[in-house]
Specification:
Helix content of chain A: 25-40%
Number of strands of chain B: 8
Largest interface: A-B, 34 and 39 residues
Structural class of chain A: alpha/beta
CATH topology of the largest domain in chain A: Rossmann fold
Shape of chain A: globular
CATH class of chain B: Alpha Beta
Number of helices of chain B: 12
CATH architecture of the largest domain in chain A: 3-Layer(aba) Sandwich
Radius of gyration of chain A: 22 Å
Helix content of chain B: 40-55%
Number of helices of chain A: 10
Number of domains of chain A: 2
Distance between the termini of chain A: 31 Å
Number of strands of chain A: 9
Oligomer: heterodimer
Distance between the termini of chain B: 21 Å
Structural class of chain B: alpha/beta
CATH architecture of chain B: Alpha-Beta Barrel
Shape of chain B: globular
Number of domains of chain B: 1
CATH class of the largest domain in chain A: Alpha Beta
Strand content of chain B: 5-15%
Chain lengths: 230, 328
């Protein structure tokens, strides 16, 4: 899932500026599951903003809405008319949701209430950790299902650096060394040979370095021949 | 082509010649200043040049900004020191590294040490973006292809002179997973490393165990292995390295010996304590170098005495490694 965390309230207030009427918009998917921007968090943040507006004598009317997915047109399109009433929308979706709102409703301004932090999973209740950097060229098949791009602090592809000791990374004793995990896994699976081959330089052109990435599936596009013969 | 232009040597560097001739090599380390003051390099070079075969010039070591490695190397060469330019993958992508290597060759650099690089969070710019476009193994491969095939990493030909570098790499026998370490060294050898310098050794039994595996794998016949040593400055420094430096193991015997060195000297006599520590630190290092010379597969020592360059001479002399050989 996409994991996010709420921005500090002071930053949010600064972003909202002198907006008098604000819509706090949550998202019912990833950020709901990670307790950052679902209906419940929308309610709490909206209340906080209302209190602040009273305390600081800055009149602000705050409404709430949560859609199933802010990153898909069909879920946000019904907001079109409603948005006209507001000076600003404060989105508690991930960065994709914030951009979708701005793209779809160019006459409104949608501001980010979260920092989108990573693609990860809940390790336990209340603890999330990154697992994927969407590098566009998955190598989990070579590394026993443990990603050195997301989990090694230097994104090494050919084994651990000199800073790995007692299973932890040099940057922090609470961070497991990804290559320690990969090694242990390879030993368990009897696949150490995989790690002895030199992995060539990575094609970062498939990662973030090539501008926004895009997938076009002609077989799925509406009006395309392939889709219609299905 | 490289073979013809260098009389059969890969680079023709002094370090390569000394190792090829079968001498027990001695390399040192020089940390450039955190300023534009070239005199710092000249002074350190003066202390090191006569007692070493070549000297590493660190590349933003511990992720702290310093005078660039290649620039410092050129200043050191002007003083008659042979540099080993360190190059990390942390600060440069493949374009920047190759551009720098073309320049390094043109300026007369002949040795390169390929490193991953300390994490930026240790240094003075912890919010910097790290690069790691390549890792150290891939960097070695790239430098070898530039030298032996006259090719850039992309596969294009280098038209004209290419870098003829004697390629070094690092190894940490004290990092984990311990079982992976010899294999990681093997990967560097296969990638094209000519020599290896190890992390500082303060655990000889573990280093012996590591070297046994390295010799079993035949790696000592593929790369020259230089064992990393360094004089300890004080008992506090020994404790700090033991307890706080990731990837290092310091046996208690060293901490205890450093502590014993000053046990009869009152605290107020700071200069006397310092002197006693330094003498003991140098003595321990001499003994280590002597023991390391007996270990099968070790081709030399890499003496790291950063900000204590004066210590290198007594260590080299004390270990019976002076004068350094001249190989034509």
């Amino acid at each position: 899932m996409i994991v996010g965390e709420q921005k500090p309230i002071a930053e949010i207030v600064k972003l909202l500026g002198d907006a008098k009427k604000v819509l706090v918009a949550g998202c019912g998917t990833c950020v709901t599951v990670c307790f950052a921007g679902g209906e419940k968090e929308v309610g709490i943040l909206a209340s906080a903003l209302r209190m602040m507006s009273k305390l600081e004598k800055h009149p602000m009317e705050v409404d709430e809405v949560t859609v199933q997915r802010q990153c898909e047109w069909e879920y946000i399109d019904p907001l079109k008319e409603k948005l006209k009433e507001y000076d600003a929308v404060l989105s508690l979706a991930c960065g994709i949701g914030v951009q979708a709102m701005n793209e779809r409703f160019p006459n409104s301004i949608t501001l980010p209430g979260l920092n989108t932090t990573f693609l990860g999973l809940p390790e336990e209740q209340g603890v999330w950790e990154e697992r994927c950097q969407a590098c566009g060229d998955c190598i989990l098949g070579l590394t026993g299902g443990i990603c050195p791009i997301a989990r090694c602090s230097k994104q090494l592809l050919n084994g651990p650096c000199g800073g790995s000791q007692n299973g932890v990374c040099e940057i922090d004793p609470d961070v497991p060394c990804a290559w320690q995990l990969i090694w242990e896994r390879a030993e368990k699976l009897g696949r150490i040979d995989n790690l002895l081959e030199i992995q060539p330089p990575k094609d970062w052109g498939r990662s973030r370095d090539g501008g926004p990435r895009k997938i076009v599936r002609e077989d799925l596009r509406l009006g395309s021949e392939a889709a219609e013969t299905e | 082509m490289a073979e013809e232009t260098n009389n059969g040597y890969k680079s023709g560097s002094n370090l390569e010649k000394v190792l090829r001739a079968g001498h027990f090599a001695v390399t040192g380390e020089l940390g450039p200043p955190q300023s534009a003051d070239g005199s710092v390099i000249r002074e350190k070079a003066e202390l090191l040049k006569d007692v070493t075969d070549a000297v590493n010039i660190t590349d933003n070591q511990t992720a702290i900004v310093r005078m660039s490695s290649i620039t410092s190397a050129v200043l050191a060469m002007q003083e008659g020191l042979e540099p080993i330019v360190q190059m990390t993958c942390r600060d440069r992508n493949r374009l920047a590294i190759q551009a720098d290597l073309l320049g390094a060759q043109a300026l007369g650099v002949r040795n390169l040490l390929c490193l991953t690089g300390d994490h930026q969070s240790f240094g003075n710019h912890p919010t910097a973006k790290n690069v790691h476009d390549l890792d150290s193994v891939q960097l070695i491969q790239m430098v070898k292809a530039m030298r032996d095939e006259s090719k850039f990493q992309c596969g294009d030909d280098i038209k004209g002179e290419c870098p003829h570098l004697f390629i070094g790499a690092a190894a940490n026998p004290f990092g984990d997973p311990f079982e992976f370490r010899p294999y990681r060294l093997a990967k560097k050898a296969v990638a094209g490393a000519d020599f290896i310098q190890t992390q500082l050794i303060y655990d000889l039994p573990r280093f012996r165990e590591y070297m046994k595996k390295v010799v079993d794998l035949g790696l000592h016949e593929k790369v020259y292995i230089l064992a990393g040593v360094g004089p300890i400055k004080s008992s506090g420094a020994a404790r700090y390295m033991r307890d706080n430096v990731p990837g290092m193991i310091v046996r208690d015997e060293y901490v205890d010996r450093m502590a014993a060195a000053i046990k009869d000297i009152p605290k107020e006599e700071k200069a006397a304590r310092r002197q006693a520590w330094r003498e003991t630190g140098i003595q321990i290092c001499i003994e280590q170098v002597q023991e390391i010379q007996e270990i099968e597969g070790v081709a030399g020592v890499h003496i790291m005495a950063i900000e204590w360059e004066e210590a290198v001479r007594p260590i080299v002399e004390g270990a019976g490694l002076y004068p350094r050989p001249t190989v034509e």
